[in-house]
Amino acid sequence: MQRGAVVSRLHGAVVSRLRGAMIVRLRVVIVALVAGLLVYAGVFAWQGYRRMSQIGLTDQPCTADGLTITGRAADDWGWLCGYRAENQRLIASGIRPEVVMIGDSLTAAWPAHDPAIAPPIAMRGIGGQTSEKVLLRFRQDALSLRPRIIHLLVGSNDIAGYAGPFTATRYTDNMLDMIELARVHGQTVILGTIPPMRASSWLRANDPAPQIVRLNTRLRALATPGVVLADYHAALARPDGSPRGGMLMDDGIHLAPAGYAAIRPVFEAALAEARKRQAAR
């Protein structure tokens, strides 16, 4: 009995010590985790403070490689930094491009598929842009370069909902604002109709054709004196508004090489007409 009692007391003591050691280790782990979280929170807060301290009035809002100095894309949602340095170099050189082509990724990708799109044409396309974003940077990326002609092609991302819900009137107002700004500066606008698209995961509308037709109808109405219409949609679409075969990439939005080849004659004819109107001024 005595031996059993001794063994029982020893077992209890060992268990108690093990339990105590486990509790100590657990406390150490918890303290370490809390300390780590506090350090992380402090670093995050400090970085946020540094970013906030950089936001505001400054003569240098952008880095040399076209990014905002805060390092946050949300601080430059219109991508004003994208061409800022290039614009400054071009203006300082005294060179005036004859044509500025501004818009979304359809414009940005154009030179890669058509070698004729080269200086004296200045490209100012940025992927994912809507009419509101292009309007935001229109003065900086187009008007300030003092071209004779501005080519404006945007609307696919409006339909895709990249800037959230919008109305046809809001889109038309954005386009009209840019046309009127160009007119005041004596520039002729080439206004491109929105190319056809296919239903895809990119689009919130199952069939974008009716929306494209609706906006293009409004664009055609804007083709007043001083505006040359480049009807790219007519060159790329079937009578029912769907894209012709081979005109689009697999994503259903961007133009394939064959698509750019199909609209080249339309662009050349519009450019010739714009040059004629400029010469008549």
Give an overview in words.
The protein has eleven helices and five strands, in the order ααβααβααβααβαβαα. The protein has helices spanning 2-54, 84-93, 105-108, 110-113, 131-136, 138-141, 156-159, 168-184, 209-221, 232-236, 257-279, and strands spanning 99-103, 121-125, 149-153, 188-192, 227-230. The protein has a five-stranded parallel β-sheet with strand order 2-1-3-4-5, with helices on both faces. The longest helix is centred in the first third of the chain and has 53 residues, at 2-54. The chain is globular and about 100 Å long. The mean pLDDT is 87.
Sheet with most strands: strand arrangement:
2-1-3-4-5
Percentage of helical residues?
40-55%
SS class = alpha/beta
Binned strand content: 5-15%
What number is the mean pLDDT?
87
Topology:
Elements: H1 2-54, H2 84-93, E1 99-103, H3 105-108, H4 110-113, E2 121-125, H5 131-136, H6 138-141, E3 149-153, H7 156-159, H8 168-184, E4 188-192, H9 209-221, E5 227-230, H10 232-236, H11 257-279
Parallel strand pairs: 1-2, 1-3, 3-4, 4-5
Quick overview of this protein structure:
The chain is 51% helix and 9% strand. The chain is built from eleven helices and five strands; from the N terminus they run H-H-E-H-H-E-H-H-E-H-H-E-H-E-H-H. It has a five-stranded parallel β-sheet with strand order 2-1-3-4-5, with helices on both faces.
Structural descriptors:
281 residues, alpha/beta, 5-stranded parallel sheet, 11 helices, 5 strands
